[in-house]
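Q: Convert this sequence to structure tokens.
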Amino acid sequence: MNTTKPEKWQQALTDLITCPEELLSLLELDQSAGIIEAAKTFPLKVPRGYVNRMQKGNPNDPLLRQVLPLGLELTIVPGYDKDPLQESQVNPVPGLLHKYHGRVLVTLTSACAIHCRFCFRRHFPYHDNNPGLRGWDNLFAYIQNDPSISEVILSGGDPLTVSDHLLKLFSTSLSSISHVKRLRIHTRLPIVLPERITASLLTWLRELELEAIVVVHANHPQEINEEVRDALFLLRNASVHLLNQTVLLKGINDEVSILALLSETLFDAGVLPYYLHVLDKVEGAAHFDLPIERARELHRALAHRLPGYLVPRLVCEEAGELAKTLV
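A:
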């Protein structure tokens, strides 16, 4: 019997807020129509530490709006699909997506610490794409048989919800494939659950034979408190390349002052702003979208306000394209 005591971050994952009524009660807010129904289609999930950064009594808090189910999600809007990037067409083996030349994306798990309401994989068939340990042989065989693959990307479900032991098992096997040079980790956990950045995780990253890149996901400067900043500095001190991607969201960060402050705050924490994503047109998230010209206008204003290295590239992802598209 395994008697190992769960770490603090693992305990936090078992104590996420998943009940809309509890979340609204903690924030001293009234319930609005459609919340319960929307949560049935895509469950609420948010760490308590993240909720502590929200302003009580403010229904428009930018962190709350990222996670609170709304009745608007139930409206079917033409042009917004369950699989907006047609990832089902680039899924040669369970748990692996091969969209771009030289890079493959691996979903080690379906789990996330937070359910972002705008997530483009909110309808993703994780039940068909959770390879488990038994499926890793097929993943590694696919990568081994394509010498053009130099980078493996671990992505959502969030790879840092996986234990350090399993991450090390995976990376050890991956390191034996000579043409793979880099391991990129796309994760929300350093932002929403900073206690995940443990001594054990940092040891794994320092000892990793592959070059390590961690891409975090922050959308608003309010997300970056002292605990998050400390976690990001720990990652940077482990010789990890730290980048951030942001999704442009109506009513949350669609002001140049907010985007500029986010870039400054990230850079102060050792993170380089990398991508500013136009929303992927996923069913249930149309109310977050902005006209493309408004996105361009915001990006131009950001470029006029900040030095070039603090201006993330404005991009969108188009199904079938071999790279992200600069907007």
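Residues 8-74 form one domain.
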